[in-house]
From TrEMBL:
Bias (Basic and acidic residues): 46-63, 130-157, 211-228
Span list, region Disordered: 28-89, 116-185, 198-228
Gene Ontology BP annotations: cell division
Keyword 4Fe-4S appears in the UniProt entry: no
GO cellular component, one term: cytoplasm
SUPFAM superfamilies, per database record: CRAL/TRIO domain (SSF52087), CRAL/TRIO N-terminal domain (SSF46938), Supernatant protein factor (SPF), C-terminal domain (SSF101576)
Protein name from the UniProt record: Patellin-3
Xref: Pfam families: CRAL_TRIO (PF00650), CRAL_TRIO_N (PF03765), GOLD_PATL1_C (PF25099)
Molecular function GO labels: lipid binding
Length: 576
């Protein structure tokens, strides 16, 4: 088989030869990539101030100023220098370690006091097995009944004394209560003496040796208030968030770190945020929401596809889909539909998050790709309201779930929005943002995501077909006004299949087989022709080789711009 080798950008007219070695499969992007890609997506780490939203609403009145500034895609601000922090406690700074320990103390106290919602249940009641409804309550012993009568009589007398208006009534009630207590106490003593004497008379006789011995390890009986305290001891509350029980194991530390980082390691603020998030999840009914069926009308608006080069699942948000008037009306025409859209978006995010790896060092964040091509923009009031509400919920209740925010096909109006919003964002949040205009979108995606993981619609080679997301793609830059060739040497009979794409095309493409034998003739597989940007996104060819030789692909770039060439190949034995 022929191997696919990464080749740097060669000079004009340089031939790239791919060695004839077995085709190596690219290893999975990460351990998490072995599983089905977790759908996920979006959450902002640092809360945006309320003024930011108000300014965004006022954007329509300032949009003309942005146009006058002559903004274009060449001036799109570039960030993306963010480096994701470690989720291992051992890697934290000393002040950060101290902060997480303090937060764990607060969480433990809250769990012990049931401050995360619900009510405290005594230990005895929690451990008690359900009894048969037909079982009747056993009658109380007479001595216990008399004691309760004495207590009730005393309480009633004191209560009457407390509600009286003069001191004489208080004294009279107290004396009367004491008299009743003395009389009843005597009655109780008489009953107890009778019970003791009867019990002694019916006890079986014990051997002299047994009667004389006392167990050395006998435990003292717990009576009165001590016994009541033990039986009514409250067990700690059990609270889980995103399927992770708080303080149960190391995964809980990763969750707490998210809240701490969202609040700059201010422990009290992080604890308050955690409390509010747990309360909101109960009020919003998250566990029930995950099981609801919202249909598939919005599956093209938000979807998960592949992983980035570091193993993060990638979520695509395609706002241009709302140009469909029928879909827009069905989603945003009234408050009920907007709330339904919000619940669907939260459900999508919840399902995605629950597939992440919260173990220390695991992948527990996602990459957001925001496609703004043909986006309705902020002129659509209903979309703006729904987006604002969703953004607020995500900021308040889903901290630190975004590894990077990439905006592609950025229009001029979004640049104006970004200028207004940026001053209200922290440097850490801004460092996660990447912006790219229409002509730079694919190039920016390839900085973070391998071409085999990028959908065809965004310049990659990921699609249904003979090749999969694990079949490596070679990327080469073809210089302006230059010709580039790629050779696939073949030493034995086989079937050679390849995919090739030039982002933006507008180049000439051809393919031929050159045999090694001197008496053989060159076979033209694909006559060189110009491929326009709209003439097919990916070319897939194959050739059955019957003798040693090489397949040569030729790309001629007559334009004045650099072009990104993508290709991959695989071989199969001729017998197969």
């Amino acid at each position: 088989m022929a191997d696919q080798v990464q080749v740097g950008a060669p000079p004009a007219d340089k031939v790239v030869v791919v060695p004839d070695v077995p085709l190596a499969e690219k290893p999975p992007v990460a351990a998490a990539a072995a599983k089905e890609p977790p759908p996920v997506p979006e959450s902002e780490e640092e809360p945006v101030k309320q003024k930011q939203v108000e300014d965004a609403e006022a954007l329509e009145t300032k949009i003309s100023d942005a146009v006058a500034d002559g903004d274009d895609e060449e001036k799109v601000p570039q960030s993306g220098h963010y480096k994701e922090e470690s989720t291992r406690v051992a890697d934290l700074l000393e002040n950060e370690k101290k902060a997480i320990e303090e937060l764990k103390v607060l969480v433990r106290e809250a769990l012990n006091k049931h401050e995360f919602g619900g009510f405290a249940m005594p230990q005895q009641q929690q451990q008690q097995q359900p009894k048969d409804d037909s079982a009747k309550e056993e009658p109380k012993p007479k001595a216990e009944a008399v004691t309760e009568t004495v207590a009730e009589t005393k309480e009633e007398s004191i209560a009457q004394a407390e509600t009286g208006d003069d001191e004489e009534k208080v004294a009279t009630a107290t004396v009367r209560s004491d008299a009743v207590e003395d009389d009843d106490a005597k009655t109780v003593e008489a009953i107890e003496d009778t019970i003791v004497s009867v019990s002694a008379s019916v006890q079986p006789e014990q051997p002299p040796e047994a009667a004389s011995k006392e167990p050395s390890d006998a435990k003292p009986n717990v009576e009165g208030k001590d016994a009541e305290t033990v039986s009514n001891k409250v067990l700690p509350q059990e609270v889980s968030i995103w399927g992770i029980p708080l303080l149960a194991d190391e995964r809980s530390d990763v969750i707490l770190l998210k809240f701490l980082r969202a609040r700059d390691f201010k422990v009290k603020e992080a604890f308050t945020m955690l409390q509010n998030t747990i309360r909101w999840r109960k009020e919003f009914g998250i566990d029930e929401l995950v099981e609801q069926d919202f249909g598939n009308d919005l599956e093209k608006v938000v979807f998960m596809h592949g992983f980035d080069k570091e193993g993060h699942p990638v979520c695509y948000n395609v706002y241009g889909e709302f140009q469909n008037k029928e879909l827009y009306q069905k989603t945003f025409s009234d408050e009920e539909k907007r709330q339904n859209f919000l619940r669907w978006r939260i459900q999508f995010l919840e399902k995605s998050i629950r597939k992440l790896d919260f173990s220390p060092g695991g992948i527990c964040t996602i990459v957001q790709i925001n496609d703004l091509k043909n986006s309705p923009g902020l002129t659509k009031w209903e979309l703006r309201q729904a987006t604002k509400q969703a953004l607020q919920l995500l900021q308040d209740n889903y901290p630190e779930f975004v590894a990077r925010q990439v905006f592609i096909n950025v229009p001029w109006w979004y640049l104006a929005v970004n200028k207004m919003i940026s001053p209200f964002l922290t440097q850490r949040t801004r460092s996660k943002f990447v912006f790219a205009g229409p002509s730079k979108s694919a190039e920016n995606l390839f900085r973070y995501i391998a071409a085999e993981q990028v959908p065809v619609r965004y310049g990659g080679l990921s699609k249904d077909g003979e090749f999969g997301n694990t079949d490596a793609v070679t990327e080469i830059t073809v210089k302006p006004a230059a010709k580039h060739t790629v050779e696939f040497p073949v030493t034995e009979a086989c079937l050679l299949t390849w995919e090739v794409r030039v982002v933006g095309w507008e180049v000439n493409y051809g393919a031929e087989f050159v045999p090694s034998g001197e008496d053989s003739y060159t076979i033209i597989i694909q006559k060189s022709k110009k491929v326009g940007c709209s003439e097919g996104e990916v070319v897939c060819d194959n050739f059955k080789v019957g003798e040693p030789g090489k397949v040569v692909l030729t790309i001629h770039n007559p334009t004045s711009k650099k072009k990104k060439l993508l290709y991959r190949l695989k071989t199969m034995p001729a017998s197969a």
